[in-house]
Write a structure and sequence with these properties.
heterodimer; A: alpha/beta; TIM Barrel
């Protein structure tokens, strides 16, 4: 089955992973900007990273027939440095018209601190001013519930933002209901130990239905599995769910959400094949 | 919206759940053994000092992580939550509290 991974950090993955994803049916990925595993020292470090996201990765992905999109921001882990964060936020508009840039993300909270809140609010302001969709990271483990509620409070109080243009990622059983009830998109991250298994994601699909719900691998430099979405597809098939439901979660929903961005230009397999024949 | 019967789910998942239950039991046993050893050491060092020897086990019982595990096990037994709500209840148990007035605290 063709599928899209709406949250995966391919800069941290080897080229063989692109080949494996393509063989398993992946036709597109979207890559939010994130923490590199160390704190970067300057805005120029982020400028290079944004060039990697907008220039290098799309070419690497295209070699395997995968369409690559991205989101830009300074992540919550580096938001404790408010001065650096402001320099990066000021530089982001340089890249917003680059092909494949879908919006601002993954912004959010990590330890739910005041500085993280300040930088998150300034990212929201940037998104509103430049009419950008938003992809949001929610905290891990014991910080997730509190942080997700705080994020929803801030989103709800900004009347410039359209809820249908915001994806709240890494939802789990105790946060998914509120995200969907308030009208946002929700992403379930299939990631060992700190997030969600394919089986639990299938449970949440059964409980909440496929409306505004997606799944992703968040594959990165840590212990993670870039082919986690095929695992979810397998689990849903094993439970007897029909192909239309599965396709909606892993293919149609990402496309519907990405269409909120003016930079989203997508070609399905049939279009690509017909172009080859011309 | 589940497509599978309860019997099928049980058949499919029994060995997985069995293995996870045994894993939890083994961790709790390991904790008990470690606490017992710590208690024995504490008892030896306390001879003649007038210090009690039960401190290690008492401390473990009061350890918040251990208490959270015990509470989670109670939730598994459905003592306090509605059917079908165990996962969310355990997630909330293991989460920090949300305070509605957080913005005032931060001054933002």
């Amino acid at each position: 089955m063709d599928y899209i991974d709406p949250h995966i950090h391919m800069v941290s993955r080897i080229t063989d992973d692109y080949a494996t994803l393509a063989r398993m049916g992946c036709v597109a990925v979207s890559e939010p900007a994130f923490w590199a595993g160390f704190d970067r020292g300057s805005a120029d470090g982020f400028r290079d990273y944004f060039r990697q996201l907008t220039e290098v990765e799309p070419k690497r992905a295209a070699q395997y027939g995968i369409q690559h999109y991205c989101w830009l921001c300074i992540n919550a882990k580096e938001a404790e440095n408010v001065s650096l964060s402001r320099d990066v936020i000021k530089m982001i508009p340089e890249f917003l018209d680059a092909p494949g840039v879908l919006g601002i993300g993954e912004i959010g909270l990590n330890k739910n601190t005041k500085n993280e809140v300040i930088v998150f609010l300034e990212h929201l302001d940037l998104a509103a001013k430049y009419d950008q969709p938003i992809l949001i990271h929610t905290p891990h483990l014991e910080d997730k519930y509190q942080g997700t509620r705080m994020i929803l409070d801030m989103l709800d109080s900004d009347s410039r933002l359209q809820r249908s243009r915001v994806l709240v990622d890494h939802v789990e059983e105790h946060t998914i209901g509120e995200v969907l009830d308030r009208g946002y998109w929700a992403g379930m991250t299939l990631y060992p130990v700190t997030k969600c298994t394919p089986q639990r994601a299938a449970d949440m699909i059964e409980k909440y239905g496929p409306e505004r719900l997606m799944a992703n691998s968040a594959g990165d430099w840590g212990p993670s599995k870039p082919t986690a979405i095929p695992d979810l597809i397998f689990e849903l098939r094993r439970r007897g769910h029909d192909e239309a439901l599965i396709r909606r979660v892993v293919y149609e929903n990402p496309i519907s959400f990405f269409r909120n961005s003016r930079n989203f230009v997508f070609h399905d397999r049939a279009e690509i094949a017909s172009r080859r024949q011309v | 919206m589940s497509q599978a019967s309860p019997t099928r789910i049980l058949d499919d998942q029994y060995l997985t759940v069995r293995a996870k239950l045994i894993e939890v039991a083994a961790v709790l046993d390991r904790l008990d053994r470690a606490a017992g050893q710590a208690s024995a050491v504490s008892g030896q060092s306390g001879v003649g000092s007038g210090q009690g020897s039960a401190g290690a086990i008492d401390d473990l019982d009061q350890e918040p992580k251990r208490a959270a595990i015990e509470q989670a096990i109670q939730i598994l037994l459905r003592g306090t939550v509605d059917p079908g709500e165990r996962t969310e209840a355990i997630q909330r148990l293991l989460s920090r509290r949300y305070a509605q007035d957080w913005r005032q605290s931060f001054g933002v």
